[in-house]
Amino acid sequence: MKILVPVKRVIDYNVKPRVKSDGSGVDLANVKMSMNPFDEISIEEAIRLKEAGKAEEVIAVSVGPQKAQENLRTALAMGADRAILVVTDEEVEPLAVAKILAKIVAEESPKLVICGKQAIDDDSNQTGQMLAALLGWGQGTFANEVAIEGDEITVKREIDGGLQTVKLNLPAVVTTDLRLNEPRYASLPNIMKAKKKPMDEKTPADYGVDISPRLATITVTEPPVRQAGEKVEDVDALVAKLKAVGAI
Ligand code: AMP
Fold first, then answer.
1. Which of 189, 193, 235, 240 is the most buried (most CB within 10 A)?
2. What is the pLDDT of residue 45?
3. Is the minimum distance from the CB of 38 to ligand 1 under 6 angstroms?
4. Where are the domains of the chain?
């Protein structure tokens, strides 16, 4: 079976985002961009399933600018077999990404799509769920552990205060949570090999998907600057201060 893994190019998680002076969004000029961390976890899981003999091919797909091919190359260097880049310089909302992915699913017939639980730039946490709805497939979101047996996949899901186990019929959509695995680093020989792996280039129009935005961003603001703390002499002083501000 084939596994499709959507991979988003996002602002690197180590970068402190700066808001544009007009409040229209985050300034991405000269900022380090990387593969969305949850998508690294998805690629790792797909490769592990292939190594365990549960899948034959892992296809990485990204919807984004031409430069997203760098992130797809990383996916290929980790072990994905081939990649599809759907090129657009527009900002693409989760619904449009889900519609494009649904078309790719129709063409490629994977039995499993492994998305990240959320992209760390917009924190939408929507694409996998929307894709499952468009396809009429089951979904196992926030996966902490997955196991494929025959035509079924068991997904342990991270939920508030514990884990929930669900069993889905394949084909299905899974979204990955942080503790599912620790993604491997791509070795130098594999980075070299990845340069020769196939990467198709498409556009949203090739799939007949209208990506015009359904949402308007009104304003983006920096979080308030944290106030400095204060050292107190002893517990009595702490209690007095807390009482004074009405905290106890
Ligand atoms: P979101 O719904 O935006 O939080 O994203 C959840 C997941 O959907 C990501 O971790 C990716 O697996 C996938 N995804 C979202 N946007 C894109 C994109 N532009 N290209 C490829 N995959 C995407």
1. 193
2. 98
3. yes
4. 2-218
* Residues in the chain, overall count: 248
Phi-psi domain of 124 (left: phi exceeds 0; alpha: psi -120 through 50; beta: other): alpha
What is the mean predicted confidence (pLDDT) over 114-131? 97
3 state DSSP class of 50 = helix
**Residue 33, Cβ density class (10 Å: 0-12 exposed, 13-18 middle, ≥19 buried):** middle
At 26-59, the pLDDT tens digits run 999 999 999 999 999 999 999 999 999 999 999 9
The superfamily (CATH) of domain 2-218 is HUPs (3.40.50.620)
98 within ligand 1 shell (Cβ under 6 A): no
Question: What is the mean pLDDT of the segment spanning 169-192?
Answer: 97
Residue 118, ligand 1, Cβ within 6 A: yes
Regarding the beta carbon of 115 and ligand 1, being less than 6 Å apart is answered: yes
97 confidence band (pLDDT: 50, 70, 90): very high
The preferred substitution site among 4, 8, 121, 130 for testing ligand 1, maximizing ligand atoms within 8 Å of CB, is 8
What's the CA gap between 7 and 177, in Å, rounded? Answer: 14
